[in-house]
Every structure is written in C-alpha cells, then in structure tokens.
Amino acid sequence: MNDILKAIKSRRSVRSFSDKQITDNELQAVLEAAQYAPTAGSQPWQFIAIQKEELINELSNASKEVAKNHEVEFIRKMANNKDFHAFYNAPTVILVCGDESLWTPADCAAATQNILLAAESLGLAACWINFGLFVFSSESGSTYNELLGIPEGYSPLYSVALGYRKGAVPAAAPRKKNVVTCIK
Ligand SMILES: Cc1cc2nc3c(=O)[nH]c(=O)nc-3n(C[C@H](O)[C@H](O)[C@H](O)COP(=O)(O)O)c2cc1C
C-alpha cells in the first residue's frame, strides 16, 4: 500500500491530547496542505489557527452553553457534562472559515480533510470538530468573529483539534457494507 493510502486508512479521530504544543513547522505544513485542497474555483477559505489555551477553553465553554438548548438530546447531554471539552484540550485548534459562495462548504470540507491527512502524515493527532462552533451560530457569534479576526463575509464552518496523541490509537469504527456500485 502506498503512503497516501496508508495515511487515509490509518487516520483516526483522536480525542486525547498531550499538553505539548506542535511545532511551527508542523502547523505551517498542515495549513499549507489545507490550501492545496480542490476548490470549485475561488479558494473561498480563511484559516484561523488558535494556540491560546484560554481562548480555546472560552470557545468550548461558550459553545457548550449554546448547545445546552440544542434540539438533539445527545448534544444537550454532552453540553451538560462538566468534564466535556469541545476540543478535548488540544493545544491547537484550526478554524476553517468560508465565504458565502455556492460551493464553499464542499471546498472547506476538502481543506479540512487535507488538514487531517497532513496531520496523520506528520504523526500528529487530530479530530474534526463541529461541536466547538455552536457559539458562532448564537448571538455572540459576531463578537467572536471580531475577536478572532475573521474577515467580513466569512464564518467558521468546520474546525480541527490538533496536537500530539495521549494514549493508544483509537480503533476504526466499522465501515458500512454495501455502499459501492460499480457500473462497467
Ligand atoms: C462534519 C463532521 C463533524 C464532526 N464533529 C465532531 C465533533 O464535534 N466532535 C467529535 O468528537 N468528533 C467529530 N467528528 C469526528 C467523527 O466523530 C469521526 O470522524 C467519526 O466517528 C469516524 O471516526 P474516524 O474519524 O476515526 O474514522 C466530526 C466529523 C465530521 C465529518
């Protein structure tokens, strides 16, 4: 199996991080990989890397507050769990922000996957996180947009918790069967 296929298959969502910060070179490599994602044309993204622990904690707490009123029960349960941290105490969080163009969600999702695969290739641990973004859909969303320097017209669509893994590599969730049709 080649290195790319290996990285795709061995990448797992990691939810336990050591305190050690990733290096600037690692962060830059991951952010560069994000920018080489396929795009429907306009590269409609902005990436905000956060390495301030207090700010990461604040986003987690604020998102938990918003999620306490979510219509989905398991989300409310997570929000009410005092030990739950939306970014699992990762030392780095990357917000993948997009503009309002037609294909922005697809482009930004491709960029997010590139971040995850680049992280895997560098031996970093990562998890795609949407829970930590609930705050941006609330009334205080615009205050955080300003605080984080998110340009006008952009909003966080996805995020990634990033760091070094603490503990064992989680097992892969079983993959669904019968999802492929080949027409020749
Ligand atoms: C759109 C999206 C949002 C996600 N949000 C979260 C999240 O908020 N918290 C979390 O722990 N995992 C989140 N995940 C990770 C999934 O739970 C994970 O990818 C899935 O369980 C499969 O596990 P694997 O990534 O190890 O293959 C998200 C994944 C996607 C694609």
How would you describe this protein?
- Keywords: NAD.
- Residues 8-164 form the Nitroreductase domain.
- GO terms for molecular function: oxidoreductase activity, acting on other nitrogenous compounds as donors, with NAD or NADP as acceptor.
- One of its GO terms (cellular component) is cytosol.
- This is Nitroreductase domain-containing protein.
- By secondary structure, the chain is an alpha+beta fold.
- It has one domain: NADH Oxidase, CATH 3.40.109.
- 38% of the residues lie in helices and 15% in strands.
- The chain is built from 6 helices and 4 strands, in the order H-H-E-H-H-E-H-E-H-E.
- The chain has helices spanning 3-10, 24-35, 53-67, 73-80, 104-121, 141-148, and strands spanning 45-50, 92-98, 125-129, 155-163.
- It has a 4-stranded antiparallel β-sheet.
- 30% of the residues are buried.
- The structure holds flavin mononucleotide.
- The site of flavin mononucleotide (FMN) has 10 residues, from strand 3.
What is the element layout, followed by pairings?
Elements: H1 3-10, H2 24-35, E1 45-50, H3 53-67, H4 73-80, E2 92-98, H5 104-121, E3 125-129, H6 141-148, E4 155-163
Antiparallel strand pairs: 1-2, 2-4, 3-4
The structure holds flavin mononucleotide.
